[in-house]
Write a sequence for this structure.
């Protein structure tokens, strides 16, 4: 008896330290992102920081589906792309202005909502696996249409446009006595900084909304559906409606992330917002971070984004080092980084299905 | 409405759908010779898609396993066949039908052999550890698809590869003012042979009986003392080989292939098995023919809508029958 008691206390203690580690990492990432313009003033790091912010939202919203409710959708980039393209097309047609962002963004959100409700009501009635296929088909059709209606979407080239004046790098937020842009710790207080904080706080608000959803009764019902669908239905919850509802919510949040992306990049094309590669990124981030944990999204998105930027450099070195051996240099070429991510992904799903956060928390996540 | 339904059922019910589709298209297209050409192309395409889809559908029906990596076999089949045909270029271009046939046969056999071996390995390594866990199945087979596509890129490179067609299949058959590509007739014939063979195996042999019983109720068959898991490996391997053959045929049909062929075909295959209903080869055939015909007609009438039209077809059928036209499992 006493052995068991000791075991549970050590387990609990390990879980507590694990959670502390998780919160410490989250804290560090949060502070780094908040102070990113000051800590990492160069252009490339800024891009990475903004990308991390946006992907945290995207991944967390996807986790609402896959981790909390247990439904697999491949259409998440479709909604992300709808938000981005809505904003981009409005900015292109109406010129740079807040009205364009509001109108285009709202249109993107509405179309996403309608599509999500349609797809959800049509195919969430049946098996989860059916839903995965339907969403995959829907997403790829959307991608093909975006590249075919090129008068409207710019096709494969995408759309380049201007954003409101506040966000252009030439705008001076604060000036010193000479009338030049004020520098705070070496960072220029210009429009780029304003754009970054627009992205940062936009992402923060969306993330907090999701935290609230997860903690609400709705979140509990969703987890009940994930654990045992029949039982949830028997307790009187309309499973289809709950699933469709969370699918719509996740779609809306993804579209909102798309708006942020469009405003930040000043460019929208298939590669940045609609391609299947992004869907794979999201999947990897969710699995690495830990499904069914909101904190996992932060860790997963940060780790993957950093890895994407530095793994390629590493592979280039490896490819050159193995230049004499047949086939190996081809497999190690920087273009093939997706190959190794795929292998990593398979291994992770086998051996650490709970992801980093789940493993650290030692609750084991869900089976 | 009632009388309409009973008449509809008496004349073959849902089996009539492809014919109805062809009839509507005939009215819309107007020119009979164009219509015949498009219909033959659609049927040929449908048969090739059927080859790719049938295995996936059966595997799902039998073991509740959905393999998102199925289309990896399609693309490997296509590339292997292309390599074999390129290596036997002299035979392929020769004027002798026997040499042509030998080259074609070798190419298809190589693809099928690869499908058999790789299918077996895939089942053991990738699928086996995640039986009965849909979420991880989807994730892992998706990962496998990514890896497979990248391996193809590493071996064959990113630029499109042209596939030589055997000499005796490269011409067209001309009847009146209708011209029909011989390759399409060949693809249709091969698909038909595969369908008939599958049908006979499933409906006339003991193994087929077990497979059908397994699709219907796996636990019951296991309780009677049969090793469904071994049967399942067999079906999986056969399905992979069929997909590779389908890929090989598709390579000859397209004549220019890229590494993206797998993910492109996967979408179509999914639409087909959703339309047809999971677990039955009759459903797969019906779905494949409809998708093939629809794709060709719409590509002629409104080129930009080709892929979207199949999506709309799928949506319409899901509204009408949420489990597809002929599901064997629910």
């Amino acid at each position: 008896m006493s052995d068991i008691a000791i075991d549970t206390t050590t387990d609990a203690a390990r879980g507590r330290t694990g959670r502390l580690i998780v919160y410490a990492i989250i804290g560090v990432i949060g502070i780094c992102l908040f102070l990113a313009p000051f800590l990492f003033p160069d252009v490339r790091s800024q891009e990475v920081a903004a990308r991390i912010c946006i992907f945290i939202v995207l991944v967390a919203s996807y986790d609402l589906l896959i981790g909390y409710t247990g439904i697999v959708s491949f259409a998440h980039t479709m909604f992300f792309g709808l938000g981005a393209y809505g904003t981009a097309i409005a900015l292109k047609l109406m010129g740079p202005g807040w009205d364009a962002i509001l109108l285009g963004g709202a249109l993107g959100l509405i179309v996403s909502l309608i599509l999500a409700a349609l797809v959800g009501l049509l195919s969430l009635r049946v098996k989860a696996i059916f839903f995965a296929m339907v969403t995959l088909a829907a997403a790829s059709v959307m991608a093909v249409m975006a590249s075919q209606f090129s008068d409207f979407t710019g096709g494969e080239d995408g759309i380049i446009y201007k954003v409101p004046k506040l966000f252009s790098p030439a705008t001076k937020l604060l000036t010193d006595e000479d009338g030049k842009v004020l520098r705070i710790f070496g960072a220029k207080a210009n429009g780029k900084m304003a754009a970054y904080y627009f992205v940062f706080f936009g992402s923060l608000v969306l993330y907090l909304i999701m935290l609230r959803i997860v903690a609400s009764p709705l979140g509990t019902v969703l987890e009940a559906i994930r654990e045992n669908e029949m039982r949830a239905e028997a307790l009187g919850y309309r499973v289809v409606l709950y699933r469709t509802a969370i699918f719509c919510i996740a779609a809306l949040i993804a579209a909102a992330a798309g708006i942020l992306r469009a405003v930040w990049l000043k460019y929208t094309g298939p590669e940045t917002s609609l391609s299947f590669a992004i869907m794979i990124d999201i999947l990897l981030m969710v699995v690495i971070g830990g499904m069914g944990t909101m904190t996992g999204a932060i860790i997963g998105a940060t780790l993957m984004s950093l890895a994407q930027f530095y793994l390629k450099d590493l592979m280039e070195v490896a490819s050159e080092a193995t230049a004499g051996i047949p086939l190996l240099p081809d497999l190690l070429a920087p273009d093939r980084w997706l190959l190794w991510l795929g292998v990593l992904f398979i291994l992770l799903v086998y051996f650490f299905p709970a992801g980093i956060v789940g493993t650290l928390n030692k609750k084991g996540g869900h089976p | 409405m009632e009388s309409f339904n009973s008449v509809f059922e008496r004349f073959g019910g849902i089996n009539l759908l492809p014919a109805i589709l062809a009839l509507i298209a005939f009215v819309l297209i107007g020119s009979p010779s164009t219509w015949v050409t498009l219909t033959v192309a659609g049927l040929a395409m449908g048969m090739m898609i059927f080859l790719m889809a049938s295995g996936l559908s059966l595997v799902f029906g039998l073991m509740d396993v959905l393999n998102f990596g199925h289309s990896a076999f399609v693309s490997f089949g296509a590339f292997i066949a292309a390599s074999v045909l390129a290596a036997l270029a002299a035979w392929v271009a020769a004027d002798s039908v026997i040499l042509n046939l030998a080259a074609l046969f070798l190419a298809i056999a190589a693809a099928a052999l690869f499908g058999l071996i790789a299918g077996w390995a895939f089942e053991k390594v990738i699928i086996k550890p995640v039986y009965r866990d849909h979420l991880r199945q989807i994730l892992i087979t998706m990962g496998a698809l990514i890896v497979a596509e990248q391996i193809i890129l590493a071996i064959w490179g990113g630029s499109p590869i042209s596939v030589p067609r055997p000499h005796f299949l490269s011409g067209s058959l001309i009847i009146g003012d209708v011209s029909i590509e011989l390759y399409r007739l060949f693809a249709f014939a091969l698909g038909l042979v595969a369908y008939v063979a599958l049908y006979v195996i499933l409906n006339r042999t003991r193994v087929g009986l077990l497979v059908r019983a397994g699709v219907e109720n796996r636990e019951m068959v296991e309780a009677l003392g049969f090793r469904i898991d071994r049967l399942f490996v067999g079906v999986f391997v056969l399905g992979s080989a069929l997909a590779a053959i389908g890929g090989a045929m598709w390579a000859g049909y397209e004549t220019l292939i890229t590494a993206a062929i797998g993910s492109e075909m996967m979408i179509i295959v999914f639409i087909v098995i959703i339309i047809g209903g999971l677990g039955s080869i009759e459903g797969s055939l019906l779905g494949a023919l409809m998708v093939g015909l629809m794709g060709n007609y719409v590509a002629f009438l409104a080129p930009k809508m080709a892929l979207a039209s199949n999506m709309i077809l799928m949506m319409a059928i899901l509204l009408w029958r949420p489990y597809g036209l002929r599901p064997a499992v629910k």
